[in-house]
Specification:
Among the domains are: 2-57 and 83-126; 248-339, 3 Solenoid (Pectate Lyase C-like), CATH 2.160.20.80. 53% of the residues lie in helices and 1% in strands. It has nine helices and two strands. It has helices at residues 2-28, 31-35, 37-56, 71-142, 147-162, 165-172, 191-208, 223-226, 228-238, and strands at 315-316, 334-335. Helix 5 runs parallel beside helix 9. The longest helix is centred in the N-terminal third of the chain and has 72 residues, at 71-142. Residues 172-189 have low confidence and may be disordered.
Length: 339
């Protein structure tokens, strides 16, 4: 009998282990069972210790013992039966132990995943608060009376814009990235912050450029020397990473004489009535830009993209340099002796 039951016992142990793994997988997706696993484990142990062995190796019937008259032989048969029950019980408990180890690994992994999600949520909350504080601090710096503080606010806003996910991905492909923005893109800086940065800096250029110069003036003065903060702001706007769907910059009426804006990204920008006399816009992207009524005397456009640019009423002089093959008269500009 023992020889016949051993294969069944091994099969039972394997079946129990497989069933246990299925139960563990079920528990992993059932919150109620996860919370009550000690009770479930107690019921399983009770069944495996007291019920299953008796069911698997039942007591001998009177008919099976009818031909055994020797009491000693009957005793040996009963001992064999109890030993088989005990072997089955031990095999089942071994299967439970193996499943318990796997269950412990699963529970630990679930706990680690939960802790990681909670930590990420906490970091997101903290990061959003930090992002808001940096944004507010940069705005406060723009209103400072000290030039170096205003410059810090301008470059701080540039870093905020550069850390937006789309801008950071584009910058990783070779576009300009400002100093201090080498960290990986952060989920805490939304694309709306990036658009707001450009709107704020554009408004700063439009308004501040009309204030009296804070640096030395004269015929040889540049925007960088006469108004360093305006020059910094317009430079940040000119070298920004342009993404699909970005609104055009509004620099209408800005005073930007003798600025250095080579390779500027100003496609579709609104420069109506702007003063860009003597400004270097070599190789700049001005496709579709609005330059109506602007002052272009001495402006350097060599290599610039002026396709579709609007120049109605713009005033240019003999020393204005245009891209090769560009018909500035047909675009609406007119030649004057001086602006």
């Amino acid at each position: 009998m023992a020889g016949r039951l051993r294969p069944r016992r091994r099969g039972l142990v394997a079946l129990s282990a497989a069933a246990g793994l299925l139960v563990v997988g079920w528990l992993a997706t059932t919150p109620w069972l996860v919370d009550h696993w000690p009770r479930v484990l107690a019921v399983v142990l009770f069944l495996f210790v007291f019920v299953v062995p008796r069911w698997f190796v039942p007591a001998r019937s009177a008919a099976s013992l009818a031909g055994v008259e020797d009491p000693a032989a009957r005793g040996r048969l009963e001992d064999d039966r109890l030993k088989l029950q005990n072997d089955v019980r031990i095999g089942l408990l071994q299967a439970v132990a193996g499943v318990a180890v796997i269950a412990a690994v699963v529970v630990t992994w679930q706990q680690l995943e939960t802790d990681r999600r909670q930590l990420r949520q906490q970091l997101e909350v903290a990061g959003q608060e930090q992002a808001g504080e940096r944004f507010a601090r940069a705005l406060d710096q723009l209103g400072s009376e000290q030039l170096d503080v205003r410059l810090g606010g301008i470059y701080g806003l540039e870093r905020i814009a550069a850390r937006a996910p789309g801008a950071a991905a584009a910058a990783a492909g070779g576009a300009y990235r400002p100093p201090g923005s080498g960290d990986p893109p952060s989920v805490f800086w939304g694309s709306q912050d990036r658009a707001q940065v450009f709107e704020i800096l554009s408004a700063y250029v439009r308004t501040t450029s009309h204030r009296p110069p804070i640096g030395p003036g004269g015929a040889d003065a540049t925007l960088q020397t006469s108004q360093p903060d305006v020059n910094a702001a317009v430079t940040v706007l000119a070298r920004r990473t342009v993404l699909e769907g970005d609104p055009p910059l509004d620099l209408s009426g800005s005073l930007l004489p003798s600025a250095r804006l080579g390779w500027a990204r100003l496609a579709r920008a609104d420069l109506r009535g702007a003063d860009v006399r003597g400004t270097s816009l070599q190789h700049a992207d001005l496709a579709g830009a609005h330059l109506e009524q602007s002052l272009l005397c001495g402006t350097q456009f060599q290599g610039a993209d002026l396709r579709g640019a609007h120049l109605a009423g713009a005033r240019a002089s003999a020393d204005t340099r245009w891209p090769t093959g560009f018909d500035w008269r047909a675009a609406g500009a007119r030649l004057v002796e001086a602006c």
